[in-house]
């Protein structure tokens, strides 16, 4: 059985959101599974000495326009939240807690967080909002989520996942690793598709 496609992302990444809507379909075309691996983009920026695209005086306005343009092309809901970039640490901890028992529920939760933030502009930095989304998408008790995100073992999982991503050369969101080959950006999904179809080049 082929190794899964690794999909690295941060819930505060609009390009990660756009990629999350398509990556599983792209993989399924080729009989592949996707391992969703959220990580803290802030740690990546610190490691690289960079900052969010929105903070650059020239890249920032282009970045926002491009996100809206891409969402229109895909026909998906998109808002650019006023509270940006967000602190996504609570949502990411909740993801890894859910993944520990059910990877598919964790994916459903991830999709729910992305939609809530970039589709409806909900404040996913709030633990109560994260817990409610986990309850509605993964069928868990919100109170259990609130407790889990404070658990040291869960905190360690997110820290370790972020460190492992950086060790593998992940420097942005979304980032895909397909059989050892790296692809960065939502605009590389078509190339991921072609790579899977051809076996690489």
Q: What does this entry look like structurally?
A:
It is a single chain. The protein is of the alpha+beta class and 201 residues long. It has a single domain (5-198), classed as 3-Layer(aba) Sandwich (Glutaredoxin). The protein contains 10 helices and 4 strands, in the order E-H-H-E-H-H-H-H-H-H-H-E-E-H. The chain has a 4-stranded mixed beta sheet with strand order 2-1-3-4, sandwiched between helices. A hairpin with a 2-residue loop joins strand 3 and strand 4 (181-184). It is globular, with a radius of gyration of 16 Å.
* Structural Rg: 16 Å
Got a strand count? 4
Number of helices: 10
Q: Quick one: CATH superfamily?
A: Glutaredoxin
Unreliable stretches covering 5 or more consecutive residues: none
Strand content: 5-15%
Estimate the global geometry from the Cα principal axes: globular
- What spatial order of strands do you see in the largest sheet? 2-1-3-4
Name the structural class.
Answer: alpha+beta
Q: How is the CATH topology named?
A: Glutaredoxin
Could you provide a short overview of the structure?
With 201 residues, the chain is of the alpha+beta class. It contains ten helices and four strands.
Itemize the secondary structure elements and their pairings.
Layout: E1 5-9, H1 14-20, H2 23-29, E2 34-38, H3 41-48, H4 59-74, H5 89-99, H6 103-119, H7 127-138, H8 142-148, H9 152-167, E3 175-178, E4 181-184, H10 189-198
Helix pairs in contact: 2-10, 5-6, 5-7, 5-9, 6-7, 7-8
